[in-house]
Design brief:
The complex is a heterotrimer.
Chain A: H1 2-26, H2 37-47, H3 50-84, H4 86-101, H5 107-115, H6 120-144, H7 148-156, H8 161-172, H9 174-194, H10 204-213, H11 217-245, H12 247-258
Helix pairs in contact in A: 2-11, 3-6, 3-9, 3-10, 4-6, 5-6, 6-9, 9-11, 10-11
Chain B: H1 3-31, E1 45-51, H2 58-66, H3 68-71, E2 74-80, H4 84-92, E3 98-102, H5 103-111, E4 116-124, E5 134-138, E6 154-157, H6 163-174, E7 183-186, H7 189-198, E8 203-207, H8 210-216, E9 220-223, H9 225-229, E10 234-241, H10 242-247, H11 249-268, H12 270-280, H13 285-290, H14 302-315, H15 324-328
Parallel strand pairs in B: 1-2, 1-3, 6-7, 6-8
Antiparallel strand pairs in B: 3-10, 4-10, 5-8, 5-9
Helix pairs in contact in B: 2-11, 2-12, 6-14
Chain C: H1 17-43, H2 55-66, H3 69-102, H4 104-117, H5 126-133, H6 137-161, H7 165-173, H8 178-216, H9 221-230, H10 234-273
Classes of the chains: A mainly alpha, B alpha/beta, C mainly alpha.
Amino acid sequence: MNRIIAALLYAVGLPAGLLAGWWLVSDGSTSFFWPPLADIVQAFPDTWNSDRVLADVLPSLARLGIGYAAALAAGVGLGAAIGLNPRLRAFLEPALEFFRAIPPPVLVPVIALFAGYTGWTSKIVTIALGCLWPILLNTVEGVRGLDEVLLDTARSYRLRRRTRLLKVVLRGSSPQIAAGARQALSIGVILMVVSELFGANRGLGASIVQFQRTFAIPQMWTGIILLGLIGFLLSLLFRFVEHRTLAWYRGVRRADRRM
Amino acid sequence: MHHGITRVSTTRRTALVAFALALPLAAVTACGSSDEPTPAASGGTTLKVGVIPIIDVAPIYLGISKGFFSDAGLDLKLETAQGGAAIVPGVVSGQFQFGFSNNVSLLLATSKGLKLKAVAAGVSTTGTEGKDFGAVIVKGDSPVKTAADLAGKKIAVNTLNNINTTTVNEVVRKAGGDPSKITYVELGFPDIVAAVAKGDVDAGQVVEPFLTTATQAGDRQIVSNYAGTDPNLTVASYFTSAEYAAKNPAIVDSFKTAMNKSLAYAQDHPDEVRTILSTYTKIDPKVQAAVVLPRWTGQIDQASVNKLSELAQKDGFLTSAPDIAALLG
Amino acid sequence: MSLTASDPAAGRRTRPAAGRRTDLFLGVLGLASIVALTEILSRTRIVDPQFLPPATEMGRALLADLGRVDFWTAFGQTVRGWAIGLAIAMALGIAFGGIVGSIGFLRRATASTIEFLRPIPSVALIPLVVLIYGSRPQSALVLVVYASFWQILVQVLYGVADVDPVVRDTAHSYRFRSLTVFRTVVWPTALPYVVTGFRLAAAVALVLEITAELVIGVPGLGQLIGVAQSSAAVPETYALVIVVGVIGVAVNVFARWIERRVLRWHVSVRRDLS
């Protein structure tokens, strides 16, 4: 019981202290850019009412979800195919590393050349393309690093191709894929915001910039905080999913270490 | 004890990491360049001014080239931004000493408690429908024929909740349409022309030189949103922060004098305006010869600014009446 | 038995020299094919050349850029912003991580705060930073430092946590001063993690620097890209994107090289001991 209380105190202590500090220091502040925390908190429910959540937040998250899912599917699929074929991998690797090194926000104007700035398509394509590279390259790495013996054993047991692919190749490289997926998630959030800074009128990122432009400072702060919350929640969600799917991996590592 | 091996390797590894840090820093000092403003050679004051690369600011470019500002002891460094909404924060934060922004941006900032001071008129409408420096354009074959038809359409503007949305709403209202059904999208002026051509949006509000570029490419003008709102509309002004004005009254006065001189000169020498336009925008000679020049006056029309304030409040994004006297006084 | 080679330095199974040469040849061929593909798709108008100009035009724009002063100025501004931001983040990350990681109470107390602040996207700060710094380089600096700091901090915390408690206790029982303990015990263990953090942070720093330039208009290559795109200078846009990609590759290669060297020694020391 004591341990649970201690854990709770540790988890909540510093954040609560920081928030209280922010509240007190900013109380009665007349500075334009740093309004009192009380004002910001007050502005929250008014700003992010159900209308705005429906019209701004959900579309942004939906675009992120679609783009990310597309990147995941394409990245894992292509990555496995490339990783299993050493010649293909050697052929494509430098080119892929080059595309991955391009900072994703730079894709926004390039994709705008093809798909314009307005509408969902260009934003989803941007997010998908930006998220693709870490997943693709990490899948290639993971598949490539698989133990040859394991692959041969699977083949000699005459496991069906699909079984081999799913249960041996993908599962074996899933720690690597998970690392790539995590990187891709943070890139996706960045692109979700950046893609809305051009040619959007609705969206989470667009709203925050609008608040800044019209000097609605407390509202702008609520937007920043909301974006932070969403980033945090997405990372929690990711960790939860990763925890479930990589449970077997942790077991293997534990066994490894004991050996 | 393995201590000995670790120490040697650690030192070398630490050196490697230190090298890793030092290399980028060395690269930085090697190919970096100072972007701090250097004191003006003439011993005058260097001023940074935020402007938008459109026809409106031709007078300030002209004034610099004619030496009006250096005569007043001012060395102007112009920096371009996409819209008035981007320039106001620059002036407030001290990045620019002066800025050029449309009056709605200034009203918005003032209503939120930012203390700004308009020092000179920026640009005014010609007052003539169909022959103004800003208008709403559509593709040549668009079904949109009048301002009232714009209701329910997607219109691109360079800044949301700003002068262009306000004035377009007003002309639609005057033509009998319902402006509340319009969907506005924010794009830079060059991107607006491309978006209209591609069909990403139904219409776009642009100013010169983009207006002539678009019409020469086959687009149609629907309505002159500035002239239609108020024939005497002062669209934009040059401004500074009240703090800067209080601390540097002499510099502000010099700027005001030189600026008004430039505005008068531009009004009287349209050909030189066209020439200077091609130095800060990428336009071809055909467009340059055909652009519609706005009206440059030395006076901010207070009545039209009041009207803008009312319209912006009607549109709902100006939530409290700004102190216009303090802004223009 | 583990599924992958768990030893990172030996992760790349050494292939015979001939195999590596074939790989290199194939890789170069791959890059050349992409270039050729761009050229063909564009010239045959399968893709509209207005959207994708032929590779030769991109190349021409790139060569023209290399002769322009404003290009090199922007190049220097981007690299400078990246390097300074990265250096500040490294210093803060190592200092903060070293102190917090070594003191159990601090580590437990800050864990939740770090977990919350870490995933906040740096771009959320853009409106705030625009208001305060406008389009000055400080805007980019704030974004770069904020994003990179977390990468390094997390790695340093891992590193400090990895210290062998027996060795640390031995050092304490020899009554080493705190600084000596840090130098001889903590730092050698944490070093590989610091270098991994450097690699991750270096990439993130470049992304944020370019983002700030593109979105806010801070002077640099990102800003040139924005201007080129909206002036419809399409080959120029692509040329600049290629330049930025090359910088990204250079940063990656550099960071990985450092990491490999440090890890190799680390691993070999371990091997000597076992």
